[in-house]
From TrEMBL:
CDD domains: SPFH_paraslipin
Family under the similarity heading: Belongs to the band 7/mec-2 family.
Protein name: Band 7 domain-containing protein
Gene Ontology biological process: mitochondrion organization
Domain Band, residue spans: 80-254
GO terms for cellular component: mitochondrion
SMART domains cross-referenced by the UniProt entry: PHB (SM00244)
UniProt cross-references to SUPFAM superfamilies, sorted A to Z: Band 7/SPFH domain
Gene3D superfamilies per UniProt: Band 7 domain
Coiled-coil intervals: none
InterPro entries: Band7/mec-2_domain, Band_7, Band_7/SPFH_dom_sf, STML2-like_C
Taxonomic superkingdom: Eukaryota
Length: 403
């Protein structure tokens, strides 16, 4: 609290029978609650710029009607004997200056002169716009906070007799709980809270935990509003504005944080790209090696099958050749047993012998012969001897096979 404000408060308190203790951080000792409320009201109206802790405008659902109702509290109505209570309102009827009854929506009869409709209370929920207030956080940052207070009358009797102006009182409490630097010590003795919700939190906590702060303020307001017959439905912070230096620093911090995140994302992207590239190379090499392995395996299997088929073919060929040769020999043997067969065989051998020498002579200029190479008679004699030996052996082989 600055010196000018303190002097204004002290003068105002002195005129209303209040004293302000300088050793208690400006805590007021009210001599009478009504005088204290009037002092606070006068002080808020005397503040430069007007509006005090709050000012009601056309926004937030409250509008000028709320401001008019607060300033004109209590709202009364003339007793017309047959009285009609509109929906959403309650009529508090006093008989001879004492509470008689509270009527809900509908109609009722009231005795004229004796019965008075002292309070017309609207029990519908209303939204009150609390204008920006200067506050100081726990880490000594100056901020401006504004919000909307949603409240309704839950107990018309307490609203009528619990406070001189219940809406004004709950709005004062609401302003206090979003405010720390304002000299609210004048009425703090009536409110069981030593610090505001903003003053209990650091700036980062306020910015990042607005829902928790709303709940904290709502709970504190509800504790105070119960005695005044009010129910605080919710409190919503609409704007939190730090001072210019803090805002510039926050912008720089946000820019640095964005740059850091960009660098981190770029580095993670490069890392991921390198990982995917190496993984792709690894998979490619693996697939290539597996392909080569399959190729070699298939080629080996094909070679094995080929060799097997060739071996089977050769075996089959040799078998067929052997059978053919055996059949040929059998035929030759049969022919040799016939008349003139041996002479024909000898002639055939001599013919082949001559062809062999002719072939050898066509391939080389140098030839080596036996002494009797050109003696055909000698060749025939040798062939006939061989044929006789074969004739003697073949029948014995045939007889052995038959046995």
């Amino acid at each position: 609290m600055n010196n000018i404000s303190r002097s204004v408060v002290r003068r105002s308190l002195s005129t209303r029978g209040l004293r302000l203790s300088s050793d208690s951080v400006g805590l007021a000792r009210p001599a009478h609650p009504a005088a204290l409320r009037q002092t606070i009201r006068q002080y808020t109206l005397d503040r430069p710029g007007g509006g005090g802790f709050f000012s009601l405008g056309s926004g937030g659902g409250g509008g000028g009607n709320d401001a008019l109702e607060i300033s004109n509290w209590p709202v009364t109505k003339v007793n017309t004997i047959l009285n009609i209570v509109p929906q959403g309102k309650r009529f508090v009827v006093e008989r001879l200056g004492k509470l008689h009854t509270i009527h809900e929506s509908g109609f009722f009869f009231a005795v004229p002169i004796i019965d008075q409709i002292s309070y017309v209370i609207d029990v519908r929920e209303r939204a009150v716009d609390i204008q920006p207030q200067s506050a100081i956080t726990r880490d000594n940052v100056s901020v401006e906070v504004s919000g909307n207070l949603f409240v309704r009358v839950s107990d018309p009797e307490k609203a009528a007799y619990g406070a001189r102006n219940p809406l004004y009182a709950v709005m004062m409490v609401g302003s206090y709980h979003v405010h720390l630097s304002y000299p609210i010590d004048l009425w703090i003795s009536q409110v069981p809270y030593g610090r505001s919700a903003i003053g209990e939190l650091e700036l980062d906590e306020i910015l990042h935990n607005r829902a928790g702060l709303n709940t904290l303020i709502k709970g504190s307001l509800q504790d105070a509003a119960v005695a005044w017959g009010l129910e605080v439905r919710r409190y919503e912070l609409t704007e939190i504005t730090p001072d210019d230096q803090i805002r510039i620093a926050m912008d720089k911090q946000a820019a640095a944080e964005r740059d850091r995140r960009e660098q981190v994302l770029r580095a993670e992207g490069d890392k991921r790209r390198a990982e995917l590239t190496s993984e792709g190379i690894k998979i490619s090499l693996k697939n290539e090696s597996e392909g080569k392995l399959i190729q070699v395996t298939n080629e080996a299997e094909a070679e094995k099958v080929r060799l097997l088929r060739e071996a089977e073919g050769k075996a089959e060929s040799l078998k067929i050749q052997a059978i053919a040769q055996a059949e040929a020999l059998s035929k030759i043997s049969e022919q040799l047993q016939k008349s003139g067969g041996q002479e024909a065989a000898a002639l055939e051998l001599a013919k082949e012998y001559a062809q062999m020498y002719a072939t050898m002579g066509s391939k080389s200029n140098t030839m080596f012969f036996q002494e009797s190479a050109g003696n055909a008679n000698s060749l025939l004699v040798q062939a006939m001897s061989a044929m006789k030996a074969m004739d003697a052996k073949i029948p014995s082989d045939i007889s052995n096979e038959s046995k």
